[in-house]
Structure formats: structure tokens, C-alpha cells
Amino acid sequence: MHKVAISGTGIFTPDQVITNAELVASYNAYATGWNQANGAAIEAGEIEPKPMSSEAFIVKASGIERRHVIDKTGVLDPQVMHPIFPERADDELSMMAEIAVAAAKKALARAGRNAADIDAVICAASNHERAYPAVAIEVQQALGIEGFAFDMNVACSSATFGIQAAADMIRCGTARAILMVNPEITSGHHEWRDRDCHFIFGDVCTAVVVERADDLASGNAWEVLSTRCLTLYSNTIRNNNGFLRRTRVGHMEDRRDMQFYQEGRKVFKQVVPVVVDLMRGHLADEGVEPADLARLWLHQANKNMNDLIGEKVLGRTPSRTEQPNVLQDYANTSSAGSIIAFSHYSDDLPSGSLGVICSFGAGYSAGSVIVRRL
After folding, report:
1. Distance from C-alpha of 179 to C-alpha of 167, rounded to nearest angstrom
2. Is 56 helix (H, G, I), strand (E, B) or coil?
3. Does residue 264 have a pLDDT over 90?
4. Which tens digits make up the pLDDT trace of 229-250?
5. Model confidence over 320-351: pLDDT tens digits?
6. Dihedral angle at the C-alpha atoms of 349, 354, 359, 364, nearest 10 degrees?
7. DSSP string of 140-167?
8. Tens of pLDDT along 182-200?
9. CA separation for the pair 32, 21 (Å, rounded)
10. What separation in angstroms does the CA of 248 have from each of 41, 191, 242, 243?
11. What is the predicted pLDDT for the residue at 165?
12. Degrees (nearest 5) of the Cα angle 1, 291, 220?
């Protein structure tokens, strides 16, 4: 069994930024127009009016201050309220593959690797642009990588599950080095017209090179000591869109359940204990005390949730250094969040430092990766 290391990470960040102020102005204009158009039904008590949003509400609920998106024009248009992406021909590189290639090149450079060194590509993300052919195979072809590639989806936990899949294959000799990418165009599946969640998501792509620890070409690596994954079925975070939609009468209409939907308060109460138990149990089984951890890189969905998880895992309130957040600048980027945090806040730690990369989300799903700085 071979030792495994994360040797490089890369991030593609869209140039366009939407601030909370811009988002609130757009949403409130939409909600006001909707309320006016449906005034009679609202007055009769047949439907509820759309509530207004505010910057204070967003920050208090999530800790998010801004988000990057590929297209802000459509999102901020009260008559549209979703991004507008030009259709691409089948022989053009897809959007997911394009941003994955950009992030992958950065990860490969940081690892001191090129396409010839990689044996496989995993595209682990929440919302794949199409069912087939696999986006991972498209990325593989675009980068000139030989071997094999496949897509996987475990919602916001996809990156940690992808690291486990890559690590397991490397440990047993199936591959020597694997590229794992997390292209998240969350703006396309998000419901920007829902006050309770219109502020949550942003677009980004992360990439991770996982390889045999005895093959490292870079000195800036982390050994993957142990991985653990957990899933529990829940309907509280859901998106009902899919290819069977056209087979059902009325399902091609504009429907709320065809976009991102969650019961936020229930998710908070149910997910926190699941994640805490997973992390503490994982650490205990590996003989690692919470006090031994130099850093926690958690899924970036909600600051209040992360603060509570960190407190319960460490047994005290973690400092900003011990548990860095990036969601104030990136918002929730689904599977990519914990990797953004790891990529931005890991280089400062000395050799021998221990940390945990942990992500969690729809499913429910949760993944924990214990790493040590080499």
C-alpha cells in the first residue's frame, strides 16, 4: 500500500463579482414587481407576498458579503434573475471543462507536474452540465492526459469524496497520480428569486493533484493520513430537475422545485451533529486529539454552522487562523469551498502540522480527510 499526498491545488475564480448591495437591489426590485402584479391575490389571502431582503439579513444569516459569478448581468436583471450563457456547439469546450482546465493547470504547476504525469481525472461536482459524455473525459482530452476519467456527484461533499476515491486508487496501485477537479457553476442551478436563499451561491472551480508520496516533485505537499465518508438520505436539500421531467405533464413549466431548494433551519440542526460525530470519530480512530490539529478547512456554506462545528470538534471556540473562512468573499461554492480554504490557508503551516479537510451537504453527505504537512 502506497502513501498518498496532495501535491498541488488550483483555483479558477470568475472576474465578475456581485456584492450584497447589488443582489439586494435586484431581488427587491423583482419582489416588488411580483407583489404588484399579484396584488389582488395577495389582498385576498390566496398567496403570500414576496418578502424583502437586506444586506444585514444576508450577513447575519450566512456571513456572506459577495460572490463571484460567470455572468452577473442576467442575475441582476429583475426581469431575468438567472445568468445568461451563450449556447456552445457540441465541438466546443463546455463551460465546466473550460473552468476545470484553468484550475487544473494551476494545480499541476504547483505540484510540478504536467499532463504526462497524470493517470486519471475525476470531475467531482454538484451540478454537471450534462449527463454524458462525462465532463471529466472532456477535461482529460483538453489537457492531453492519457488513462481514464469519470464524473462523480455527492453534492457539496464531492471534493472530499473525490480525494478519497483518488487516494484509494493510488494506495492500491491503480494509479500513481490523479487530477481531481470541482467545477461549480452554481449560479445556473440557483433560485435567485427566493429571499431565503438568493444570496447563497457563487461560481468557482478548484483542482487538486493527488499522487504517491514517494513520487513528489514539489516540496509543498500534504500526506493524506486517512479519509472517511458518510451518507444519510434526506430530502431537505434537493433539486428535482432531470431528464424524466419532460415525461410528466406540466413539469416543463417554471417550477420552484426544479432549482436549488433547502429547508435551511432543519439542515442546520440535522447536519451539525452528523458532521461533528464524523470528524470526532474519525480523529479518535486515527489516534489524533482535536488539540493536535493546527487547522480545520470546512465546507464554506454558512459561517454560523462552521463556527458551531469548529467549537464542538475542538471543544472551544476556534480562532480565525485555526478555522479560516472564505465564504465572505466566495459565498457557498458547493464542493469547492473546503478546497478554496485549504488552498488559501495551508502554506503557512510548518512540517508535521495536522489538519482536517471536511465537507458536507445534500444527501446528507459528509467527508473528512486528515492530512499532515510533509
Report:
1. 11
2. helix
3. no
4. 999 999 999 888 888 888 888 8
5. 999 999 999 999 999 999 999 999 999 999 99
6. -170
7. HHHHT--SEEEEE-BTBTHHHHHHHHHH
8. 999 999 999 999 999 999 9
9. 16
10. 28, 22, 11, 10
11. 98
12. 50
Closest of 111, 96, 54 to residue 181, by C-alpha: 96
- Beta strand 354-361 with 293-298: parallel, antiparallel or unpaired? parallel
The DSSP code sequence of 351-367 is TT-EEEEEEEETTTEEE
- The sign of the dihedral angle between the CA atoms of 189, 191, 197, 201 is positive
Main-chain dihedrals φ then ψ at residue 140, nearest 5 degrees: -55, -45
Question: Distance (Å, rounded) from C-alpha 92 to C-alpha 71?
Answer: 19
Grid cell 460572490 in the structure block, residue: 67
Q: Three-state SS for 17? A: strand
- Known catalytic residues? 156
Closest CA to 179 of 93, 113, 133: 113
By three-state DSSP, how is residue 10 classified? strand
Residues 95 and 74: their CA atoms lie apart, in Å, by 17
Q: Please, which pLDDT band fits residue 217 given cuts at 50, 70 and 90?
A: confident
* pLDDT greater than 90 at residue 149: yes
In single-letter form, the type of residue at position 182 comes to: N
Integer distance in angstroms from the first to the last C-alpha of the chain?
18
> Nearest 10 degrees: CA dihedral of 134, 136, 142, 145?
-120
Which phi and psi angles does 247 have, rounded to 5°? -85, -5
Are 187 and 330 a contacting pair, CB within 8 Å?
no
Using the Cα atoms of residue 232, residue 236, residue 241 and residue 247 in order, give the sign of their dihedral.
positive
Cell of 160: 472530499
Residue 248 CB contacts under 8 Å (≥ 6 apart), including other chains: none
C-alpha to C-alpha distance for 293 and 367, rounded to whole angstroms: 17
Q: Quote the pTM value.
A: 0.95
The model's confidence at residue 252, banded by pLDDT at 50, 70 and 90, is confident
Helix/strand/coil for 4:
strand
Place of cell 476515491: 165
Is the preceding omega at residue 318 within 30 degrees of 0, hence cis? Answer: no
